[in-house]
Structures are given as structure tokens and as C-alpha cells.
Amino acid sequence: MDRLEAMKTFVRVVERGSFSAVAKELGATQSAVSKQVAALEARLGAKLLVRSTRAIALTRAGEAFFPEARRLAEEVEAAEAKARANERTLEGVLKVAASVGFGAGRLRPIVRSFLAAHPGLAIELKLDDAFVDIIAEGVDVAVRIGELAESRLVATKLGETRRLLVASPDYLRCAKPLTTPQDLAAHTCILFTGRDAQRRWTFDGPGGARAAIDVSGNFGSNSSQAMRAAILQGLGVGFAPELLVGDDLRGGALVEPLPAWRGLAQPIHALTPPHRRGSAKARAFVKHLRAFLH
Q: How far is Cα 215 from Cα 167, in angstroms, rounded to an integer?
């Protein structure tokens, strides 16, 4: 038994919560993964996991062993990454996750230039406006917009963005005047209904002024692209990330009716699972992202 590999497999099983998920990640059979963990338990003379048809759980011995095993696995991966630091060619698959709006608005050209610089790499891009469990999904790098919750994920700030109040020229021609944020009470607003959905839009204005307006509307979606399409079609006023509607504003398809009032600055972070911290390809991609977005 390769003790280090068995220890790394045990750590991944705990983090993913599934033998089958780790087997798929490693390109092995579920039986092979289970045997590795069983061999580790036999060597230690202690049961580390309680298995059931639905889930796995750490035993008391497993709870004591897991933090040290994870630390050792991370240190070994970091040491291996340093040993490969002089390699000029990055190879393999990099799994990247981001929201649909960010992926469509900004990420595609960044990915294209990164792949051009590293032809030995392939990127598997997961775009989803819903919450993605980065560790469970086996993601190497995720891009998140907004304040971060406490977690073990390694965060690198890439830059900032804001939400902008936008509408189509056709909508504004037929709608009531929109000269202050308070006028939004009389307008149909396009609403985001996904995670962290809000019916109160908060703006920074001239001279440090701030306005928080409760809004309503007859169309909402958990998809940023569906929201963008609704705004472009003149169904109402939207409050959308600049990354999503920037091209539409520059092309004239959308306008800012209140350009002096914009959403609060939101940080953009790259998140990396702790066990991917030493990955040369993940570090290279985060560095590439930061160069584009900082």
C-alpha cells in the first residue's frame, strides 16, 4: 500500500462525501478507492469512516486523523508544485466555475488567451448562477462576485465591479420619467430570483449620497442571461452587473437613466480549494485572471 496515496484518497473521500465521486475524479473504480481506505484503516488499526448507503461519516479516530492527513496531503502537493515550478509547460484539465453573466461577459476572452499561452492545458468551464459547492464539484478555480462567507477556501481578490441601473431606449420612451432613484417605485423592474435575491436596490450617488429603494415587477428569473434578455426587450428596468451589460451599454442597446447613481462596489475573488493551493495550473490561471481584472 502506498501510504501517502491512501491518505490523500481518504482526505478526498471526506471532502467529497462520496467514494463514487472520488473514483470518478481519479479515473478508478469505487471498489479500488474503498480498498485504499480500508488498507489505511488496517494499517492504523482504527476505523476511520462509518459507511452507509446514503452517506459517510467520520469516526472519533477519523476526526482526529483527518486534519493531520489533510495537512500532510497539502504540504506534499505544495512541495510537488515547487519541484515543477521551473516547468514551462502546463498540462492537464483545469476545472473553472463562474456565474453565467461573468462567463459570458468577461471570462470567455480570458480563457481564450490563457489557452493560447498554454496549449497543453484544457479548461472545463462550469457556468451556473446557482450556488456551486466547489469542493464537492472538484473545481480548481471559481470566480465569485460579492462579499465572501467564512470558509476554508483560499481567496485572491481580482478586482471590483458594480451593478448598474439600465433600461432599453424603447422602454424609457414609453415609461414614466426616471430622474431620481425614488422614481423606481413607479417602474416595472426586472428581478433576480436566485440565491441572494433582493427586492431592495441600494445605490451610491453624488457627494456620498446613498439610496435604498424597494422595487417590484412582473418578471423575475434566477438566470442572469434571462434577465439581460428581458431588459433588452424593454420589459422593464434592470439592476445588473456591469460585467453582464457593459457591451450593451457601449453599443447603445441599453442606457443608464441615472448615470450618477450606481450600485455599491462588489469585490471579485478567485477561490481555490485548500487541496488545490499548490496547483501550478490553478496559480497560473488566477494570475492571468488578476492581470485582466485588477
A: 15
**Cα-atom radius of gyration of the chain, to the nearest Å?**
24
β-sheet bridge partners, residue 51: 56
104 burial (CB, 10 Å; 0-12 / 13-18 / 19+) is: middle
Q: Which residue has the cell 473514483?
A: 23
Q: For residue 16, how many other CB atoms are within 10 A of its CB?
A: 20
Higher confidence at residue 275 or residue 183? 183
Judge whether residue 197 has pLDDT over 70.
Answer: no
Compute the distance between CA of residue 233 and CA of residue 129 in angstroms, rounded to an integer: 21
Give the Cβ contact number of residue 273 at 10 Å.
Answer: 23
Q: Looking at the chain, how many residues does it have? A: 294
- Identity of the residue numbered 156: T
Q: How would you classify the pairing of strands 92-98 and 121-127?
A: parallel
- Amino acid sitting at position 188: T
Grid coordinates in use for 245? 451589460
pLDDT at 95: 93
Percent pLDDT > 70 in the chain is: 93
Q: From CA 167, how far away is CA 126, in angstroms rounded?
A: 29
Calculate the alpha carbon distances from 1 to 7, 22, 224 in Å. 10, 18, 49
Whether 128 shows a pLDDT value over 60: the answer reads: yes
* Residues 146-151: contacts with CB under 8 Å, at least 24 apart: 146/196, 146/266, 146/267, 147/266, 147/267, 148/267, 148/269, 148/271
Contact 96, 139 (CB under 8 A): yes
Instruction: Tell me which residue of 131, 146, 126 sits closest to 243, measured CA to CA.
Output: 146
In this predicted structure, which of 94-103, 147-156, 218-227 has the lowest mean pLDDT?
A: 147-156
Per-residue pLDDT, 184: 95
**What pLDDT, on a 0 to 100 scale, did the predictor assign at position 196?**
64
